[in-house]
Design brief:
alpha+beta; 169 residues; binds ligand GNR; 30% helix; 5-stranded antiparallel sheet; Peptide Deformylase; binds nickel (II) ion
Length: 169
């Protein structure tokens, strides 16, 4: 089932999510719905808070479904390494219509549980590293807008406030 994607300003997006205790049938259903919702959007990643669930679950597929082995399900992900630096344009399904250049490490290694509850380690470079960080930020209640500083951030926040007041957000 495709679930609606919440937007900037919805409180759950701005709060840290809770670790998953066990992959129950409800959690498995949520993961399935998140995969479906990500591909339908389409997006290269989706975090549970974006569909209103404050749990530490995210899905990523930088191939957007073109590569059958491209799907990565992360439950309780954590960084074990972060290095390098990249500066690229970034967007978010919860901040539609906006993008900005965000500075991030160019290589990360994460550990997480997969959909069956098995631990794995995965390295990501370039776009995959960016996607991992973007999704783990969501689990910490942070959106890409929060990584921006000064006038770049203020401009986007002001435009969103204006759209919200006009009932167009
Ligand atoms: O689809 C998405 N594209 C994207 C592009 C650059 C950096 C990060 C992303 S993630 C985003 C989907 C999304 O909002 N995931 O939370
Ligand atoms: Ni996002």
């Amino acid at each position: 089932m495709i679930r609606p994607i919440l937007k900037y300003g919805d409180q759950i997006l701005h709060e840290p999510a809770t670790a998953v205790g066990a992959i129950t049938p409800d959690v498995d259903q949520l993961i399935g719905d998140m995969i479906e919702t990500m591909y339908a959007a389409p997006g290269i990643g989706l975090a549970a808070p974006q569909v209103g669930m404050g749990l530490r679950i995210a899905v990523v597929d930088v191939s957007i479904g073109r590569d059958p082995s491209g799907l990565i399900v992360m439950v309780n992900p954590e960084f074990v390494e972060r290095d390098g630096m990249q500066l690229e344009e970034e967007g978010c399904l919860s901040v539609p219509g906006f993008n900005a250049t965000v500075v991030r490490p160019s290589r990360v290694v994460i550990t997480a549980l997969d959909r069956s509850g098995t631990a794995f380690v995965r390295e990501g470079t370039d776009l995959l590293a960016r996607a991992f960080q973007h999704e783990i930020d969501h689990l910490d209640g942070k959106l890409f807008v929060d990584q921006l500083r000064g006038i770049k951030r203020d401009l986007i926040v002001r435009k969103i406030r204006k759209l919200t007041r006009a009932g167009k957000w």
